[in-house]
Amino acid sequence: MPSPARASGDDGGAAGPGALGAVEVLPGRVRAALLSGAGVVRERADAVFDPAAGAGAVDAALAEVAGLLAAGAPLGVGVAAAGVVDPGAGLVVEVNEAPALRGYPVARRLEALVGAPVRVEHRARVQVLGDRWFGPGRGRRSFASVSTGEVLGVGILYAGEVLAPPGGRSGAHMTVSASGRRCTCGRRGCWKTVATTRWLRERARALGLGGDVTLGALVAAPGEEAARLVGEYAENLVLGLATVQQLFACGLFVLHGEAREGGERFRALVEERLRADVLGGGEPVRVVVSEAAVDDVALLGAAGLVLSGR
Fold it and tell me: According to the UniProt entry, where is the signal peptide (predicted)?
């Protein structure tokens, strides 16, 4: 079996006593890391599998990265998984793009390989725990953590608990336009149809701004056309965020992913439009952009899942 891709943190040290194990399970890929109790990633491992294969392919990928985790003797392992999950049973219920993960007992498999307790949660929801323990949400009992870019989703901490009802999803498929475009789920007008990188590129192409642009490039581009598109993108993102705020009064929204490319200008646009769209009362809504590296967001959330369970 080939060795997994493996790297040490910048300081080169092992995680040491009190280490936290973190795993991200994606269609065709498994990422693992050992983190310190302060949320510093010390070592990483990476393995791939055929998402169209059987469960044995996932078993092999987990086995490749489990050595790193077992060697660190972590307090526990948190799993941030794509798709629909059953945290109580420790299962990945279904991932549309990866039949190999359907009904996969990831917690049981990892516990046998690592010898530590394992907890599982949806990757978009669990990232709020990364922000709670290691990021801008420290000290708060209610706030929202938002994935932006190719993937869209919201994790909500409410009164100190992650909102994670059985069968619940990340919000990408909430309807924001009854007569909107057809979504990959088959319904119309889902939030993800107007507030992801795919929409941004398609809209930029239609406006003659190029079909492979980034949010950062559009923010920096001269001319009113690019500025209007950035504003429209911010408004589309707020369509979902305003609903979340109205329902749960989060107060704070931590943006991850593509929003980071937009810098202060995009952050301010989102905050301005969100404040204009929600009813008054409670604390003023704030929007911040996380400084965490994109590749670390889910891993930090998984590590936070371990701490939250102790």
Answer: none
**Could you give the angle at the alpha carbon of 27 between the alpha carbons of 178 and 95, nearest 5°?**
50
Which fold would CATH assign to domain 139-291?
Nucleotidyltransferase; domain 5 (3.30.420)
Q: Which segments within 36-177 are labelled E, that is strand?
A: 41-48, 77-81, 84-86, 91-94, 118-122, 143-148, 153-158, 161-162
Cα dihedral 43, 82, 218, 270 sign: negative
pLDDT given at position 70: 96
CA distance 176 to 190: 6
Is pTM beyond 0.90? Reply is no
The string of pLDDT tens digits covering residues 201-211 is 999 999 999 87
Q: Which residues pair with 30 in a beta bridge?
A: 25, 47
The percent of residues in the chain predicted with pLDDT above 90, rounded, is 73
CATH architecture, domain defined by 5-128+296-308? 2-Layer Sandwich (3.30)
Are both 5-128+296-308 and 139-291 of the same fold?
yes
| Mean of all residue pLDDT scores within the chain | 90
Residue type at 254 in one-letter notation: V
Token output for 47: 């393995």
Cβ neighbours of residue 133 under 8 Å, at least 6 residues apart? 39, 300, 303, 304, 307, 308
45-88 per-position pLDDT tens digit: 999 999 999 999 999 999 999 999 999 999 999 999 988 899 99
